Amino acid sequence: MNRRQFLQTLGTAALPLHTLAAQHRGKVKITDVKVMIVRGTWDWNLVKIETDSGLYGIGEAYWGFGVKDMILNQFKALIVGEDPLNVDKLYHKMLMRSAGQGAVGGVTVTAASGIEIALWDLAGRILQTPVCNLLGGRFRDRVRFYRTLQTPDNVEDQGHWRAQCQGMMAEKFGWTAFKVQGDGIPTKADPDYKEPGHDAYTRGLTNRDLRRIEKAMATVRDTVGPDLDFGVEAHWKYDVRDAINMCKAIEGVKPMWLEDPVPAGNPEAMASVTRASNVPICTGENLYTREGFRRLIELNGCDIVHIDIPKSGGLLESKRIHDLADNYYISTAAHNPASPVGTIASAHAAASMRDFRVHELAKYIDWWQDLVVMEGPVIEKGYHVIRDKPGLGVEINPDVAKAHLAPGEKWWG
Question: What is the C-alpha to C-alpha distance for residues 215 and 250, in angstroms, rounded to an integer?
Answer without folding.
Answer: 9
